[in-house]
Amino acid sequence: MATEAVFDLAQLLQPFSDDKPAGEDIRADFSPTSMYYQIKDARAAARTAERQNLMSEDPDAIHQKVSEWDKILELAPKALVENGKDLEVAAWYVEALIREFGFPGLRDGLCLLNGLIEKYWDGLYPLPDEDGLETRVSPLIGLNGVDGDGTLIGPIKQVSLTCGFTNGGYAAWQYEQAYEIEVLADPEKKQARIASGAVTLSMIEDAVAETPTDFFMTLIEDVGACIDEFAKLSAALEEKCGHEAPASSNIRKALNRVNEIVGFLTKDLVLSEPDAVNEARGDSEGNAVAAKASVASKSVSIESININTRDEAFRTLLKVSEFFKRTEPHSPISYNLNQAVKWGRMPLPELLAELIPDDRAREEYFKLAGIPKSEGSD
Predict the structure, then answer these.
(1) What pLDDT sits at residue 107?
(2) Residue 34 and residue 163: Cα distance in Å, rounded?
(3) 293 pLDDT above the threshold of 70
(4) CA dist., res. 167 & res. 145, Å (int)
(5) Residue 42 sits in which domain range?
(6) How far apart are CA 249 and CA 247, in angstroms?
(7) ∠376-144-253 over CA atoms, to 5°?
(8) How many CA atoms lie within 13 A of 282 on its CB side?
(9) C-alpha–C-alpha distance, residues 50 and 44, integer Å
(10) pLDDT of residue 330
């Protein structure tokens, strides 16, 4: 069952009046103590604190909560209810929500953005200026990023995907780090990384075994809901903005990657018979050894899987890849399968951009194949 809503969406989407449903522009008050600058300054302070934690010599600093985001959690919804409907304020609120509530916060934040665009687009702040729609959607451009990662990518990769009681929770970035270590050919380099405190796959596997099944069931639904809501947001922006719609691939790829990792972590659970899953739910408080044995006992033979859709075929290939990664870590088979699935899930223009890095050669291919040039860009 998905996590309950983390705030009252209907309240934040209530119109101000019949003649001016989107309210007033919060930027009209230029005083440094205005609501707008309080939120903006709190966000700047939060981002500075996070950068300092990232550069700290303390390896645990990156996991420390930055209290400045609490002020945004308090003031942003207040501004949307008492001042005006504003995409920039809402975007800052989304940044705070994912840090405080994880994927349920991101899901509900995306719902808020969708609601604001659907109900208030004509009067939504910030209003377009001489730069056109870019002024209005620039806060969303910042979430995704253009030439680099946007402000949501790091937080997405930092949400805990396990809740083991021995080593705590591990996030997507730690899984990817552990995978890199696992496939290192040089044993000395591998040992050096481990000795420096890097997370290993075995540590993550232990955390998975200690994590209640209900946690994973909820996580799968919450991540899936984020993917669905972001797809709605992208579609709404394309409808409203046309060719000026902000890029969306970074967030989409980050969420899809998290979804893949959750699939890897829960491969035995999600392929279990329904009765076995229900049994695991009822025994979620068992000890680590029992949990590990329970997870291991639920594996299903690939031969018994009936593949009916393209996505099911991809998921099966990823499970085969995981098998080879565990049993033959020295073999390139698992990487080849992962790469094949990655390419198979890409839109054609993105695939060609990766396969043909030379811009001129790629444009020539687009021309010969009849692919519109606009499809080749994000």
Answers:
(1) 98
(2) 40
(3) no
(4) 33
(5) 9-158
(6) 6
(7) 65
(8) 6
(9) 10
(10) 62
Which tokens go with 250?
A: 């970074």
User: How confident is the model over 104-138, as pLDDT tens digits?
Assistant: 999 999 999 999 999 999 999 999 888 788 889 99
What is the reported pLDDT for 220?
Answer: 94
pLDDT value at residue 333 = 83
Sequence letter at residue 217: M
How far is the C-alpha of 336 from the C-alpha of 321, rounded, in Å?
A: 8
Question: Does the pLDDT of residue 59 top 80, yes or no?
Answer: no
Distance CA 255, CA 249 (A): 10
Q: Which residues contact 97 (CB under 8 A, 6 or more apart)?
A: 6, 7, 73, 105, 106, 108, 109
Flag whether 211 is in a domain. Answer: no
Query: Does residue 377 lie within any of the structural domains?
Result: no
What is d(CA 207, CA 169) in angstroms, rounded to the nearest whole number?
Answer: 7
- Considering its fold, how many domains does the chain have in total? 1
Instruction: Kindly state whether residue 375 falls inside one of the protein's structural domains.
Output: no
- The answer to whether residue 262 scores a pLDDT higher than 90 is yes
Q: What is the pLDDT of residues 341-372, one digit of tens each?
A: 778 877 777 777 777 877 777 777 777 777 76
The pTM score is: 0.72
Helix runs in the chain, H state only: 9-12, 35-55, 68-82, 87-101, 103-120, 133-144, 153-158, 172-182, 187-195, 201-210, 213-241, 249-265, 267-270, 274-282, 288-296, 310-327, 333-345, 348-355, 359-369
171 occurs within a structural domain: no
